[in-house]
Amino acid sequence: MKLNLAGCTEDSITDGPGIRFTIFCQGCPHHCEGCHNPQTWPFETKQEETTKALFEKIKKNPLTSGVTFSGGEPFCQAGAFAELGRLCAGAGYEVACYTGYTLEELLKKAGQEPEVKALLETLDVLVDGPFQQKGRSLDLKFRGSKNQRILDVPKSLALGGPVLKQDGRWSASEEEIPPVKINYFS
Predict the structure, then answer these.
(1) From edge to edge, which strands make up the β-sheet containing 66-70?
(2) Helix (H, G, I), strand (E, B) or coil at 118
(3) What pLDDT is stored for residue 139 in this prediction?
């Protein structure tokens, strides 16, 4: 299968914890005000790449611990991203996805679009919801606005609704992390 891409970042530290391979897809229906990737909105073909070729690129860096699907809107190419997600998950990578849809909207879509369900089933983490300029904050970890949630997808699917990721790697705020005391004079 092929993906229509806007580009890739092979060693991202901003699209999730650890060193990640981030894939930016081309095409987005949301057009969020203040979007930091408006060049990804058009659905015209920009750069096509097969899922297998992308997977081979991902495997080249032994320091890569996770793969992030970003946009554009990955769920507009759900079938191909599901295939890539299965390859990545099978190789032990943490698979995350940013989407302008809420989990509730995706669960509804999954009832009519099997590829949406297939993509959800490959994910470990989902950052959901449209970017909202009024909720923008640079203090948020791995998300752009306060309405967006960082979800534990396997738990969310098991319960049929959103379950926040609680492992601290994705969602800990500075208030949740105890300060480290260092004695420089000992």
Answers:
(1) 47-50, 2-12, 20-25, 66-70, 94-98, 125-128, 149-152
(2) helix
(3) 86
